[in-house]
Amino acid sequence: KILIVDFGSQVTQLIARRVREERVYSEVVPYTRAAEAFRTLKPKGVILSGGPASVTEDFSPRAPEEIFEAEVPVLGICYGEQTMVAQLGGEVESGHHREFGRAEVDVKAESPLFEEVWRVDESYPVWMSHGDRVTRLPDGFKVVATSENAPFAAIADEARRFYGVQFHPEVVHTPHGAGLLRNFVRRIAGCAGDWTMATFRQEAIARIREQVGTGKVLCGLSGGVDSAVAAVLIHEAIGDQLTCVFVDHGLLRLGEAERVVQLFRDAYNIPLVHVEAQDLFLKELSGVTDPEAKRKTIGRLFIDVFEAEARKLAAQDGKPVEFLAQGTLYPDVIESVSLTGGPSVTIKSHHNVGGLPERMNMKLVEPLRDLFKDEVRKLGRELGMPEIFVGRHPFPGPGLAIRCPGEITAEKLDILRHADAVYLEEIRRAGLYDDIWQAFAVLLPVRTVGVMGDGRTYDYVLALRAVTSVDGMTADFYPFDMGFLGRVATRIINEVKGINRVTYDVTSKPPGTIEWE
Ligand code: XMP
Asked: What pTM did the predictor assign?
């Protein structure tokens, strides 16, 4: 086990992720709880994360002293290195403001940290954080790598097995960083590397049971991967204390509602309330054309419907629903934190139940909070969920409403659903589905003239979109070959009544967004 002490870096969870990739269990705890966690976890190694503070300031965060006295290996990253140096009797000088960037480090000495990854006298690219820097090493330490701006880019006290790096080995911009972390957890800390998703599953189940006790849990299903995996995991933990609510707002893709209901009711036998609210949503959306107004209308209705279901469930036996389960992922947490300065607003986007926990006095159960999308997919597979569910592209909470610019009507939604299904069928048939982050069709509120057979047509234009992305934050359009696009266009125009022209969107993000609204 590895203890990761969090000093508030935006990328601390990436350290945990790299450690998990080495099949080693790790726990991230804020520095304020590190001493207690160190005693209970009894880790074989400790990693001190980066963070925004400066060790030269009064009252800046520190690692618990006992960590340095327990004869376990410690790796300090960035701020973690600086506080280690300061705490062990070295000196750190305050720099100007903090700045991140690419740098080259020169390896000066051999170290188990570098073994089979970096060689002496070679230089390697790293992602560096400039700012404060170490100016004098504590006794026992030596420099093992330098860079132009950071003469103490990597330091080591091999006897005590203390290591410090000024750069970030956890980010992909440090190409061999994962190897250095592997050396730390496997070679230096001696962790066996036998932790797997199966272990995560067991541990997550234990945590859910402990949190929930005998309480009732409500989980909103969106049809997406995250909420589905969260629901299956929670059901495994607490059985029918869990009720899932699936609000069908009529903005789903073809066959989606049936798939969700089938999977949960039939395959998993999880209590599921299927709310058919299509008419309500369509009625309230009628005449709404502004994208934000659409999103807000959908969000408001969703909460109303969900809340009504929660009240019904509470009324059944007079016991309130104490918990709301969500499939919040780590990137959701990070994004909300960085945008708003506080983690309280993580209930966002398609989880669409923002505000509900406060209003109904519910506590959140978020078993996937520390995971990344691909890890959630792995967990879903571990839980035996069908590939068609686990591997699917993300789908936005407001659904097809934001893929239908202008006014939404039942007719337009039908046209869009049909065209989208043809497009995705072709993508799957061509074996491209898993290479693409997200693919979908957008029905434009524009009609153009065409000719079909002997007749004139005057029908809608469809735009196809497909992007590659790592996390949805940035994206590139997918470079289909023209033959493929031509085939899709022909099929759609022939098969989908109401469309007579097809275009392909070649905008990246930024400056575009993935969705059109
Ligand atoms: P954009 O359009 O902002 O989308 O580039 C980035 C990713 O987020 C998805 N998306 C949403 N997901 N609720 C969601 O759950 C929403 O309101 C929402 N809007 C966009 C989008 O599909 C893409 O994967």
From this structure: 0.77
